[in-house]
Amino acid sequence: MKKVIIKIFGIALLTSVLFSCKALTDRTKKDIAKMPESYGISTDTINTSKINWKNYFKDPYLTNLIDSALKNNKEINIVQQEIEISKNEVQARKGEYLPFVNLFAGSGLEKTGKYTRMGAVEENLEVKPGKAFPDPLGDFTLGLSASWEIDIWKKLRNSKKAAVHRYLSSIEGKNFLSTTLISEISNSYFELLALDNLQDIVKSNIEIQSNALKIIKQQKESAKVTQLAVNRFEAQLLNTQNLQYKIAQDIIETENKINFLVGRFPQPVLRDKTVFNTISLDSVSVGLPSQLLQNRPDIRGAEQELMAANLDVKAARANFYPKLGLKSGIGYQAFNPAYIISPESSMYNLAGDLVAPLLNRNAIKSMYKTATNKQIQAVYEYEQRLLNAYIEVVNQQSLIENTKKSLDVKQKEVNILNASVGISNSLFYSARADYIEVLLTQRETIDSKMELVDIKLKQLNAKVNLYKALGGGWN
What is the Cβ-side half-sphere exposure of residue 66, based on CA atoms within 13 angstroms? Predict the structure, then answer.
């Protein structure tokens, strides 16, 4: 009696856990929907994720790269096969709760010993009056057999539905991969444009510093400065020249990263480097927080996995209940092929069985507990996706605003330093400034220009990443 009570209590406890999982998920959805604008997400119903990536990214070189990547990327192709595998699993599960019908045919030969019970019986039997049983005795069969497990508790149908949800989840996985791929190519492309601009800045400063070095050498010959000044100017020039080799290597690696994502061998990436400072992405509208549930492929995929896990629990619970099976067969059987297609050789059978687990149900219990634990795990994974999506949107939206302000301030700094270069040179030539001031001004100017490019890149990347965080790019 105690064992029965314990089992009933265990099933009730697991059932309550399932209801708790659903309540936890519903509560999370409500919390996301109630997130106010003060936390970083606006309440505007317009959502940028609905914009197709071809309309969001206006650069023709970039859109060509993305279009090619979506067709040729190796990881996309691998995931496509995963989708086909999931689709095949659905067909397999569907066939499990339909009747199985088999065609069978067979033949055999049996020689019974004369001095055995069967041999003695056959010796006294006649096929027809005056015609003894053949020895050896042949056996030829031809017919159909069928078996069918009646899905009383919807175990097989729930397994099939779970496979459907996992198939849908695999599709969402491909959509999320497409979104990620678009963002990776876009970020790498903008990084490539930024490197091109850095290279131009370095080349421009090499020219400026080379001219300054020539003048310093002339002043040294006229004894206006010492060799120390010449060495300092030359060292700065060499340092700047060295930067161009690092940038050149970064360009090669970034190009090949894009080539890998596109699914092609190393080759130059076509681009227009002059648009970097003027490129403008459309303003991003994040929409309602609850729209993340519909727009993010990874969240929708996690939701499909959660629904599949719920059905797995139901299917595992059905293993505790009796199974009803039907078996039947119809055909012909005779000891001679000449008689097989004959009404007298016809045979048939029909049987049903009802089987229920009675003792040693530990394996079934373990399967049920495992399915329940996986469902709880799916709930946590779903909530983790929700939390991660919301944080990503808030972070990228904040980054866009802050980089915009930082870009304006840094641009003013660069303008001041550009003017300072000319001023410092004039003061130095008129012997009213030390050469150290000229060197520092040149160094600060090149550093500020490179920082300006970096801030611009971060701003572009933030808009790309926000587009991804909102779930855009897959449709």
Answer: 27
What are 302-342's pLDDT values in tens digits?
Answer: 999 999 999 999 999 998 999 888 899 999 888 888 878 88
> How far is 373 from 313, CA to CA, in rounded Å?
9
pLDDT tens, 399-416?
989 999 999 999 999 999
What is the Cα Rg of the chain in Å? 39
Q: Which two tokens stand for residue 142?
A: 């031809």
Between 1.10.8.60, 1.20.1600.10, 3.30.70.20, 3.90.1170.50, what CATH number should domain 2-57+174-320+362-469 receive? 1.20.1600.10
> Dmax over Cα atoms in the chain, in whole Å?
142
3-state class (DSSP) for residue 327? strand
Rounded Cα gap, residues 327 and 1, in angstroms:
37
Tell me the C-alpha to C-alpha distance, in Å, between residue 265 and each of 90, 138, 181, 247, 463.
Answer: 37, 68, 17, 21, 29
**Tokens 């297609």 correspond to what residue?**
341
Give the model's pLDDT for residue 286: 73
- 125 vs 123: CA distance, rounded Å: 6
State how far the Cα of 342 lies from the Cα of 338, in Å rounded to an integer: 9
Q: How far is CA 256 from the centre of its chain?
A: 22
d(CA 330, CA 234): 100
Q: Where are the domains of the chain?
A: 2-57+174-320+362-469
pLDDT digits (tens, 9 = 90+) for 269-306: 999 999 998 887 666 777 676 777 788 999 999 999 99
Single-letter residue type at 33: A
